[in-house]
Structures are given as structure tokens and as C-alpha cells.
Amino acid sequence: LKVTQLNAASQTNFVIRGFGNGNGNDGIESSVGVFIDGVYRSRSAAALDDLPEVERVEVLRGPQSTLFGKNVSAGAISIVTKQPQFEFGGKAEVSLGNYDQRQVKATVTGPLSDTVAVRLSGSVSLTDYLLYGTGNDVNNRDRWSIRGDLLWVPTDQTQVRIIADYNKITEVCCAVNAVYNGPATQFIGAPSPFGLGKPVGDPSKIFDRDVVFNTDPSNRLTGQGISGQIDHDLGFAKLTAI
């Protein structure tokens, strides 16, 4: 399993056994499908979310169309979060780091009645700019999310789970440095009349905090959704509707 990110946070995808696509084009659905609590996330950007309590992550190699439908020809990533609990509980986490890094995560769960339980979660992640390019600062972190999870268990055979979430990313990220300038890049940087005379990266200074862009890599991503899942035990089988 390999997880890669290109020039933007939304250009992230999974590759299983060498197969995977979609991270270079926001309109392409990856051949490795991502599912969060059974819900298919069709685009790379839709799979980005700072989830609360994660129960397990399943990495399923090979075609998974029998259980997961289309767009899983190379495999599937299934992320399952913990359900609301009928006992009060919670967790909070605060992290501080260099470049003014601040991360806050919290989740709380408990019962509303004998048959209904809820979980509320939220997170904020902020980091100062790390690099400089096009006269502006780049490579910051600015994202937050909120999530509500309701579980209703009317009988021993039936349960209903409803999840609503909202998350937002507003970043100028991410920078890349040139480690080698090929013929085309050298033509761009060569002075006129031998080239275009445009700025290009200097491979001898890849560890400097200066990067070369002709435009800032701005990320403006908003994710929101509501999902519902009904599970009913038939005795000889389990019926699930999402």
C-alpha cells in the first residue's frame, strides 16, 4: 500500500500492488475506492477528513466489486469509526509545535435515552507558512472539521446510525522543489532569445525556503454530507442498507 500526495492536498490517492490512479486530476475517480463508515468517497478531496475515534482501517487488495460496487478494480480502503456509546466518555488532545503549529481534537459520547446514543467530535489544525514563493508565503495548514453521530437501537435485532459531518480546508499548499532541470526547464529559464527567461528552480538550493511558482497552490476544499445505515438481523443473515 502506498499513499502519495502531489502539488495539492486534494491530489492524494492510494495505490495497492502498483495499481491506482486519480491523484493528478480532480475529476478522475480512483481505482482504489475509499469508504468511510460504508460511504463511498468518489474524489480524493472527499476522502480528506480528520476523523474522530477510528475503530479500524481495512486495506482490501484486488477487485472488490462484489461488496463495494464500482470503482474498486484495484482494491478498497474501508475506514470504520467507533459508534456512539451508551456510557459517557470522551477524549481531548492538544498539540503544539514549531512554525506556530496548533492542533486541537475532541470527541464526547453518551446516551440520550435507553435506545439512543450520540457522539460529537471536532478538530482544528493550524500551522504557519514554511516556505516562500511568488512573493507570498506557502505551505501552511488551515483546516477544521465537525461531526455528529447518532445511534438508535430500538430492538436487539435492529439498529440505525446517522452521521453528519462538515469539514473545510483553506491552505496555500503544497510546495515542490526541483531536484533536476531537464531540457524543457532549462529552455524556460534561459534568457531571451535562447529561451523564455522565466524563473525556474535551482536544484543546488533545494533545501532553501524559497520555491518557484508562477501561481500560488491555493486549496479551497469544503466537504459536507449526511449518511444513514440500517442493520437488521434476520437470524439466518444480516441485512444492511446504507
Task: Explain what this protein looks like in three dimensions.
The protein has 242 residues and is mostly beta strands. Helix content is 5%, strand content 48%. The chain contains two helices and 15 strands. It has helices at residues 65-68, 183-189; strands at 2-5, 12-15, 32-36, 39-41, 54-61, 75-81, 89-97, 101-111, 116-127, 131-133, 136-138, 141-152, 158-172, 218-233, 238-241. The mean pLDDT is 88.
Strand order in the sheet with the most strands = 7-8-9-12-13-14-15
Contiguous runs where pLDDT drops below 50 for at least 5 residues: none
Largest sheet: 7 strands, antiparallel
Helix content: under 10%
Kindly report how far apart the N and C termini lie: 27 Å
Q: What integer is the average pLDDT? A: 88
Counting DSSP E segments of at least 2 residues, the number of strands comes to 15
Number of helices: 2
Which overall shape is indicated by the principal axes computed on the Cα atoms? elongated
Report the C-alpha radius of gyration, rounded: 22 Å
Give the structural class: mainly beta
Strand content: over 45%
Give the topology string: H per helix, E per strand.
EEEEEHEEEEEEEEHEE
